[in-house]
Amino acid sequence: MHISHNPWVWVAAILTLAIFSFLYKDNPFFKMAEHIFVGVATGYGFVYTWNNGIYPNLLKPIFVDHQWLFIIPLILGLMYLSVVVPKFAYFIRWPFAFLLGVGSGLSVPLAFRASLVEQIKYTILPNPHGMSAILFINALLILIGVVTVVLYFYFSTPHEGVMKPLTKTGIVFLMVGFGASFGYTIMARFSLLVGRFEFLLGNWLGILPWLK
Amino acid sequence: MKDFFIKLASLNRTVIYLIITIGVLLPLVVPLNLGQKMSPPTEHLYTFIDTLPKGSHILISADYDPSTLPELQPMLEAIIKHAILRGVIPMVMSLYPQGTGLGIQACEKAKETLGARPDTDYVILGYKPGFSAVILGIGEDIKKIFPTNYSGIPLDSIPAARGVKNYNNIALVISLSGSSTPLAWVTYAYTKYNQKLATGVTAVSAADFYPYLQTGQFIGALMGMKGAAEYEYQVNKLLEKRGYEKAKSVFAVRGMEANSIAHFLIMLFIIIGNLGYFLTKKRREA
Predict the structure, then answer these.
(1) Are B215 and A122 within 8 A, CB to CB?
(2) B42 CB contacts (<8 Å, ≥6 apart)?
(3) Checking CA distances to A173, which of A145, A191, B4, B163 falls within 20 to 30 Å?
(4) A47-81, pLDDT tens digit by residue?
């Protein structure tokens, strides 16, 4: 057992235990750790964004390189802060409009192609990884799954007659999907717990010889 | 017997916490050595990097923060080690402020254990804010987005970054993320520049990314700690073969063993809970 001599490991370990104390009930130690986390994350994010974004991409071009065109994004950026003065709060609509316009123009055609066209294409076309018996069955399952789930969400016709077995099949696919998501969620949550245990037992208390 | 299951189903949650805690701790202290078989998404990514020509560049974007470290950090470390062993140059960047520190940590480990040299065997580019602008900008000229590396050295004077202008010179982009950031890479890098992509995601979002594997928009993927463990295990075998025993890491492999026990316990609790529910219902109806 080699307990860590690094004071920062101790700080992290104490804060971890403070967060875990919530399992018992809400308490001042949990609150303290929660507030420290929010404060540190915000401060860290601000300094990083200042050094890597605001200064090199905005302030330096204006004040060092004298590229005056950059004053326009500076003014648009400052308009975001107008919400603090209710009288001028409507100025925030300008940068929002700009951002929404540019953002939509950039992303809508590409996102449409990436998330819709390609998905539809490969629901019908052969798998890009090749085609074996297993992949063929997979492709067939995907095709049946997509069609029946889409039909399940088609509410313009009552789910009766031919529609009934198809939409029922759609529900089965949905349930399998939810089950897979839930299973993965359990794995994710346990992974976080395992990660903390590895830190507490390994990095802090030093009782996991395999952890370097 | 019926009474036993009914009682078991109404077990106090503190007892369940305790059983789970022991179940998770035990495999960490006493390793089970279960081994890891690569699943197809992991294998595709491993094989792709393994067969890249020496001197190729891969861009790894550490798009996560410490909250998802247990799942994503082992992926980053294993991929960096794998690339360096194969003579492929990993360029590490981040779209998240906290991702830079984690990227540096992973590169430092490769430096300590493999003797990798910064700016020769790997490059740390650092963080840039703005998702779409950064991803699109790299497609035009990476030097416009990252004029210098993380330490402020101009990219032009870094031997490992020489010849990299845009996606045309990058064999693969890997986005490691605990959110939907890999989809931004699909939207802007794959769709606009036809850039080959792979991803490593947390298990929570894994199910959302399978459709993008099916279409080939991702050539491979690491799904949660399972994917991390599979890749780590495979890289460990390579490290052993090359005589780098000390560079082996079993963070995810051991974590997955603990996960396996926890999963087994959860399944047991679900079965007991359901049995108890139906038996209680039956008794009430009788």
Answers:
(1) yes
(2) B220, B221, B222, B223, B227, B230, B231, B234
(3) A191
(4) 988 988 899 889 999 999 999 999 999 999 999 99
Burial of B166 (0-12, 13-18, 19+ CB in 10 A): middle
**Residue B29 contacts A where some CB pair is shorter than 8 Å:** yes
Radius of gyration of chain B (CA): 22
pLDDT band at B241 (very low <50, low <70, confident <90, very high): very high
Q: CA-CA distances (angstroms) from residue A43 to A37, A72, A116, B93? A: 10, 27, 39, 21
Question: Of the candidates B221, B229, B214, B217, which has an alpha carbon nearest to the alpha carbon of residue B260?
Answer: B229
Nearest-by-Cβ selection for B255 from A23, A180, A198: A198
Strands B89-94 and B123-127, by their bridges, are: parallel
Residue type, A134: I
Residue A190 has pLDDT above 80, yes or no: yes
Is B107 in the A-facing interface, judged by CB distances under 8 Å?
Answer: no
Residue B93 β-bridge partners: B61, B126
Cα A11 to Cα A16: distance, rounded to the nearest angstrom = 9
The structure tokens listed for A8 are 């920062």
Least CB–CB distance from B203: residue in A53, A127, A187: A187
Residues of A within 8 A of B31 (CB-CB) are 210
Measured CA to CA, the distance from residue B50 to residue B271 in angstroms comes to 43
Chain B contacts of A192, Cβ < 8 Å? Answer: 67-68, 70-71
Write the DSSP symbol of residue B149. Answer: -
Cβ-based contacts of A207 with chain B (< 8 Å): 29
Amino acid at B125: L
How many other C-beta atoms can be found within 10 angstroms of the C-beta atom of residue A78? 11
Q: What pLDDT digit, counting tens, does each position of A107-122 carry?
A: 899 999 998 999 888 8
Residue B3: exposed, middle, or buried by beta-carbon count in 10 A (0-12, 13-18, 19+)?
exposed
Residue A129 pLDDT grade (very low, low, confident, very high; cuts 50, 70, 90): low
